[in-house]
Write the structure tokens for this entry.
Amino acid sequence: MAARGENPAGGSWHAITQQVLKRNQVRLAVYVPDRVLTPLIRALHEDNDFTAFAATREEEALGILTGAWMGGLRGVLMMQTSGFATLPNVLASLAVPYQIPLIMIVSERGTLGEFNLGQAMVCRTMRPVLQSLGIEHHTITRMDELEFILDRSIKQAVATQAPTCLILSPLLTGGKIFSQ
Amino acid sequence: MPPNEPKVLNRFDITRRLVALLRNEEAVIGGIGNTNFDLWAAGRRPQNFYMLGSMGLAIPIALGVALAQPKRKVIALEGDGSLLMQLGALATIATLRPRNLIMVVMDNRTYQITGSQPTASAFGADFVAIARGAGIAQSDWALDEASFEQLAARALAQDGPAFIAARIDDKPAVATTERDPTLLRDRFMRGLGVRE
């Protein structure tokens, strides 16, 4: 059996994500670092089609991506669950009311083997926040659904001028494992 | 504190002086509250963006516009309280060194719009020292109106990033911005030539 995050055909969740972002003209990748996202972050740094850098906070990254979109440059915000939890005010006051097709990719912590109680608690706030702000969101658990969900979600975000959030489950990425 | 104590300027006055220097459809991002209101009052330009919430994000938004349109100068107008909320952005900007980004901080040493509580600059925090410390070498206090115009003209003519801090008085803004986010965003995108 293939390990989580790899598929028998040789693709990986991060390679597929990179290709789908590229195919949808996403060129700016702003992130707050995360262990699970590391292979994707590394791949985007090494790919000349992308400008990739770390912001100091997720709110800052959201501001940068909002400005970039208005200036004609499409981007993605990558973060982990606890980082998403810092965003409700700027989602409610900037991204949603100004109709910004903000593409968020969240590496999900706090579930399926979480070892940090704080992460487990904050994870429970993520979907209710997305729900109450009316933000389209999907949890991706399977390699065979990743391309379809990501590609269609980006296209819908742009077409409807609305933020979207893709939650990468540990079922897809393997997640972060407590080191013995 | 700066070596020569800067003169206390007026936000609307220096905003008008700044806008008067714009010749090349430069983008201007107004922060939350008074910087935004006085930008609105200084005259409608399709290249102005008015932020109605998201305190602290004027500089990050300007950075995003600057990255998207590297040939256009982009100016962020931010207040002292707002900058204190997102100081990390200065370090990000020092790392990326966008040549077309100009930051103007209006420092009245108070959270004026929420009841005039003092900010950290009332107790000695020096924004130019903070910006320099973050790695933005071209960071200066405007010593008076002429000095402000000189610094702004230099920032518009030369490569940045540039950071200009101005001590301002406690006069309220002279107008209030229209509050229709989608309209403000759409006008701005057309002003930047992203939409026709």
User: Anything to note?
Assistant: The domain at 11-191 of chain B is CATH 3.40.50.970 (Rossmann fold).
